[in-house]
C-alpha cells in the first residue's frame, strides 16, 4: 500500500508549516467545518430503499471508469470531462459530505507520456542519422500496461491536485493491491488512513497499484469476499470497508439494460433488485478497462449486500456530465439504482404501460359506454359520501395538527356534502358531453374518385395530472379523461392521501363495469415528481394543478413532455367611470370574497380616478372592510391618501386569501396597459355601462378569459357548462382558459380508398389534384393541363 498527502506533508502536526498555501487553506477549511453544521452521519445498517433517500448520503465513493477518464483514442485523459467531475466532488465535499474517488487513467496517462518520449527519441536519432541511412519507421511499439501505469501514476495525481486546488480542496493518493485487503493488518492500516483523511476534510484518490499488481485470477473470490480484479471490485470493496452510504459508478453507458444497448428491444432498467440478473443480457466490456457490465453488476450487488447503495450511470454524456454526480445525490432519476427493497405494487413505468393499454381500449369504446362509466362514478360519489368525508376528516386533522398548510390550502383540502353533490352534478354534465367527443369527424374531403379524407378527434394518450391538496380534482379529471378516452396517471399531494385513496377506489370501481380498472392509476410509490417528468417516451401530456411554484417547477423539470398549465391567477377587476354602483359591489364582493383561495379570485382592483372621493368609492371600501379583506395600496392609490393602508410590495401578487391590491388608473386604456404589464393572462373583468368602452376592453385585452359586468369567478369549467376542468390554461396554443374534454383531444387523418387509387404526382402534362376545403357534397376534383 502506498500513501501520499498533497505535497508529501504526511504528518498532521506539521501541516501548517510544511504544506503550501492551498493546503493551509484546507486546514482552515477543516477547522471551520468542525464548527459549522454539516450533514449528520447516519447509522450504517442497510442501503437506502429509494432514490429520494440518497440525499441523506454522507459518505460517498465515486468510481471513475477508464472510459470516463480517458479520451476516445485511449491515449491521454479527457480533461474537460474530468474537470467537471472534480468540480462536483469538490462542491459536495465543501458542503459537508465525505467524498472518495476510485479512479482509472494511470495507464492511459502513462501511455500518452511514453509515446511522446519514444517518438521524441526516434525523431532525435533520425535527425542524427540523416544523410547516412534511409529514414526509419516512426511507429510506436506496443507498450506494456505496467510500465504505462508506473509512468502515468504521478502525472495523474498531479493533475487531480491541480484541479482540486482550484476549489481549496486537499487530496491524497492511496495505491492498493488485492493483498492489502486480504491481510488483516494492512486492511486495518488502510481503513485508519482513509478514516483520518476524511476526518481532515481531505479527498482520498484511490487506485490499484497497476505497476506491480499481478494479473487477476479467474474465480478467485473468497467466500463472502469479492476479489480485487478491477476498479469496479475495488470500489465495491472499499465502499463496504469504509461503510460508505453511496457508491456512484460512472461508465460510458446510461446504466443497465435488459438487452445490449443499441438494440431495438433495449430498455434502460431504472431500479435493479438482487435476483434480477436473468432479466438482462450482458454485452462486451467497454472499449478500455478490465471490467465489463457483468463485473459492474457483480460488484454493485456485493456492495449492496454490504449496506452500500449503488448507482451505475453515464459519466461520458456531455449533456449530463456536468451535473451527473450532484443529480444522483439529489435523488434524480439517472442511471440504474440498486435496491434491496422491492415495492409492494408495480413501478411507475409498469403503471404507465398498464394505463396506456387500458386507455386504448377505453378510446375504442362507444361513447355511450364511456358515459355509463362516468354516470356510475357520479352515483358512487353520492352513495359513498360518508366514507369520503370520513377519509377527508383524517386528512384535515393531520394537516391542522402539523400546522404546515396555509389557510388557503386547508380550504382546498376540505370537502363537504355540498361539494360532493356539486361534483356529482358536474360529472353528469361531462357524461353528456362524452357523447360527442372522441371519434367525432371535424372535416371530410373527397380528394379523388373513391378516395375520401377525414379529420377525426382522438385522445392525446397518457396524461399525467399532478395536483396538490385538492381531492375534488381526482374525480373531475378522471371523468374528463374517461370521456375523452385518455389513460390517466395521477400524482396527488400527501396532504390528501386518505381522501385520494377512497376516490381512486370509486373511480376504478366505475371503470370495472367495462373491465378497464387500470385506465386510471395513482402513482403511489415514492416517485419524485421530477423523475415522472423525465418519462418522455411514456407520458404524452402533463397537467399541473396547484400553486404557481408547482406549475413552474413542473415546466422546468419536464423533459420533452408538453405541459398544460397556467401562471399565477393575478386576476383584475376594473371599475370604469361609467360603472353601476349596484353591479360594482356585487361583482367585486363575489370576485374576491366568495372563494379567495381560487385561482380565478380577484387579486387587484383597478379604480378609475373619477370614482375616488365619491360615495361609490366609499361603498367599495366599506364592503371590503366588512368582508375583512386586507387592502394593499398601489403606488398611485397611496399617493391620494393621507393615511394609506400598507403599500403593496408588488403589483403582480396572487394573495389566495382575503387580501387584494387597490390601484388607481386614469382610463380604460391605462387599465388595459396595467393588466398587460402586471397580469397573468388568466381572467380580467370590466364593470361599466358604456358598451363602447366595454367592447374596446374585450378586444384589446388578450387574457384567456375577459368578462364584462360579470364576476371573475365565472372562469370555471363547471360554470362554463364543461362539467369540470383539468385546469385553466394561460398558454397561447392548444387549449386556453378552462380546459374540458376538448382540451384533452387531438386529431388524426384517415384516408379511405377502394384499393386501386395511386397518388401519382409525376404524370406527364398534368398537375396534381386541386381541391378546396368544402363540404363533401360540394366537392369537385379538378384536373388541369400544366401547360
UniProtKB/TrEMBL annotation:
Pathway: Amino-acid biosynthesis; L-proline biosynthesis; L-glutamate 5-semialdehyde from L-glutamate: step 2/2; Amino-acid biosynthesis; L-proline biosynthesis; L-glutamate 5-semialdehyde from L-glutamate: step 1/2. One of its GO terms (biological process) is L-proline biosynthetic process. It catalyses: L-glutamate + ATP = L-glutamyl 5-phosphate + ADP; L-glutamate 5-semialdehyde + phosphate + NADP(+) = L-glutamyl 5-phosphate + NADPH + H(+). It comes from the Eukaryota. PROSITE patterns: GLUTAMATE_5_KINASE, PROA. Residues 58-314 form the Aspartate/glutamate/uridylate kinase domain. Gene3D superfamilies: Acetylglutamate kinase-like (3.40.1160.10), Aldehyde Dehydrogenase, Chain A, domain 1 (3.40.605.10), Aldehyde Dehydrogenase, Chain A, domain 2 (3.40.309.10). GO terms for molecular function: ATP binding; glutamate 5-kinase activity; glutamate-5-semialdehyde dehydrogenase activity. Can form homodimers/multimers. In the C-terminal section; belongs to the gamma-glutamyl phosphate reductase family. This is Delta-1-pyrroline-5-carboxylate synthase.
Amino acid at each position: 500500500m502506498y500513501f501520499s498527502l498533497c505535497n508529501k506533508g504526511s504528518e498532521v502536526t506539521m501541516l501548517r508549516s510544511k504544506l503550501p498555501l492551498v493546503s493551509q487553506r484546507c486546514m482552515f477549511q477543516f477547522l471551520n467545518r468542525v464548527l459549522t453544521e454539516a450533514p449528520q452521519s447516519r447509522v450504517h445498517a442497510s442501503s437506502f430503499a429509494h432514490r429520494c433517500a440518497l440525499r441523506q448520503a454522507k459518505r460517498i465513493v465515486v468510481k471513475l471508469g477508464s472510459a470516463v477518464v480517458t479520451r476516445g483514442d485511449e491515449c491521454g485523459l479527457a480533461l474537460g470531462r474530468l474537470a467537471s467531475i472534480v468540480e462536483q466532488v469538490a462542491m459536495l465535499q465543501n458542503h459537508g459530505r465525505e467524498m472518495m474517488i476510485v479512479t482509472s487513467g494511470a495507464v492511459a496517462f502513462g501511455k500518452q507520456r511514453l509515446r511522446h518520449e519514444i517518438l521524441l527519441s526516434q525523431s532525435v536519432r533520425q535527425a542524427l542519422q540523416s544523410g547516412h541511412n534511409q529514414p526509419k519507421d516512426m511507429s510506436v511499439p506496443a507498450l506494456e500496461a505496467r510500465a504505462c501505469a508506473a509512468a502515468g501514476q504521478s502525472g495523474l495525481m498531479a493533475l487531480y491536485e491541480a484541479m482540486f486546488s482550484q476549489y481549496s480542496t486537499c487530496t491524497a493518493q492511496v495505491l492498493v493491491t488485492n493483498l492489502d485487503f486480504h491481510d488483516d493488518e494492512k486492511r486495518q492500516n488502510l481503513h485508519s488512513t482513509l478514516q483520518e483523511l476524511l476526518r481532515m476534510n481531505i479527498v482520498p484518490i484511490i487506485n490499484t497499484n497497476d505497476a506491480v499488481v499481478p494479473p487477476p485470477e479467474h474465480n478467485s473470490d473468497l467466500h463472502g469476499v469479492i476479489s480485487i480484479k478491477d476498479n469496479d471490485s475495488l470500489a465495491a470493496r472499499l465502499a463496504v470497508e469504509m461503510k460508505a452510504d453511496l457508491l456512484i459508478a460512472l461508465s460510458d453507458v446510461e446504466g443497465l439494460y435488459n438487452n445490449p444497448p443499441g438494440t431495438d428491444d433495449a430498455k434502460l432498467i431504472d431500479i435493479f433488485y438482487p435476483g434480477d440478473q436473468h432479466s438482462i443480457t450482458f454485452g462486451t466490456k467497454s472499449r478500455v478497462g478490465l471490467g465489463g457490465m457483468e463485473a459492474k453488476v457483480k460488484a454493485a450487488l456485493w456492495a449492496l449486500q454490504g449496506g452500500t447503495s449503488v448507482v451505475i450511470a453515464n459519466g461520458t454524456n456531455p449533456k449530463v456530465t456536468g451535473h451527473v454526480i450532484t443529480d444522483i445525490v439529489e435523488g434524480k432519476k439517472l442511471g440504474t439504482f440498486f435496491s434491496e427493497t422491492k415495492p409492494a405494487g408495480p413501478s411507475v413505468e409498469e403503471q404507465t404501460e398498464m394505463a396506456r393499454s387500458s386507455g386504448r381500449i377505453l378510446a375504442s369504446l362507444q361513447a355511450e359506454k364511456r358515459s355509463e362509466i362516468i354516470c356510475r362514478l357520479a352515483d358512487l360519489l353520492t352513495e359513498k359520501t360518508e366514507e369520503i368525508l370520513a377519509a377527508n376528516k383524517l386528512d384535515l386533522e393531520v394537516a391542522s395538527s402539523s400546522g404546515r398548510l396555509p389557510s388557503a390550502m386547508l380550504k382546498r383540502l376540505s370537502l363537504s356534502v355540498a361539494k360532493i353533490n356539486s361534483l356529482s352534478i358536474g360529472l353528469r354534465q361531462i357524461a353528456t358531453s362524452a357523447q360527442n367527443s372522441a371519434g367525432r369527424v371535424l372535416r371530410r374531403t373527397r380528394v379523388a374518385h373513391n378516395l375520401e379524407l377525414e379529420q377525426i378527434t382522438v385522445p392525446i394518450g397518457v396524461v399525467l395530472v399532478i395536483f396538490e391538496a385538492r381531492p375534488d380534482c381526482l374525480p373531475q379529471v378522471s371523468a374528463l379523461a374517461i370521456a375523452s378516452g385518455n389513460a390517466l396517471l395521477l400524482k396527488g399531494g400527501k396532504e390528501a392521501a386518505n381522501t385520494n385513496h377512497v376516490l381512486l377506489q370509486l373511480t376504478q370501481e366505475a371503470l370495472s363495469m367495462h373491465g378497464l380498472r387500470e385506465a386510471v392509476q395513482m402513482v403511489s410509490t415514492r416517485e419524485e415528481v421530477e423523475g415522472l417528468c423525465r418519462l418522455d417516451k411514456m407520458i404524452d401530456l402533463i397537467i399541473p394543478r396547484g400553486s404557481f411554484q408547482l406549475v413552474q417547477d413542473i415546466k422546468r423539470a419536464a423533459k420533452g413532455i408538453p405541459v398544460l398549465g397556467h401562471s399565477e391567477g393575478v386576476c383584475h377587476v376594473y371599475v370604469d367611470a361609467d360603472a353601476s354602483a349596484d353591479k360594482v359591489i356585487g361583482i367585486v364582493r363575489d370576485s374576491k370574497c366568495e372563494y379567495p383561495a381560487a385561482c380565478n379570485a380577484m387579486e387587484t382592483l383597478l379604480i378609475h380616478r373619477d370614482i375616488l372621493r365619491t360615495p361609490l368609492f366609499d361603498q367599495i371600501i366599506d364592503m371590503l372592510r366588512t368582508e375583512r379583506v386586507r387592502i394593499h395600496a398601489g403606488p398611485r392609490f397611496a399617493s391620494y391618501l393621507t393615511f394609506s393602508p400598507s403599500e403593496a410590495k408588488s403589483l403582480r401578487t396572487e394573495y389566495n386569501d382575503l387580501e387584494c391590491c387597490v390601484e388607481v388608473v386614469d382610463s380604460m386604456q391605462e387599465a388595459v396597459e396595467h393588466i398587460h404589464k402586471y397580469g397573468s393572462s388568466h381572467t380580467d373583468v370590466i364593470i361599466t355601462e358604456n358598451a363602447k368602452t366595454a367592447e374596446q376592453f374585450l378586444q384589446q385585452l388578450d387574457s384567456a378569459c375577459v368578462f364584462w359586468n360579470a364576476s371573475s369567478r365565472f372562469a370555471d369549467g363547471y360554470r362554463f357548462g364543461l362539467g369540470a376542468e383539468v385546469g385553466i390554461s394561460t398558454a397561447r396554443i392548444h387549449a386556453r382558459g378552462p380546459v374540458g374534454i376538448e382540451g384533452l383531444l387531438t386529431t388524426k387523418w384517415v384516408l379511405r380508398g377502394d384499393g386501386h387509387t395511386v397518388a401519382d404526382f409525376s404524370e406527364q402534362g398534368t398537375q396534381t389534384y386541386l381541391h378546396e376545403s368544402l363540404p363533401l357534397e360540394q366537392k369537385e376534383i379538378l384536373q388541369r393541363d400544366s401547360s
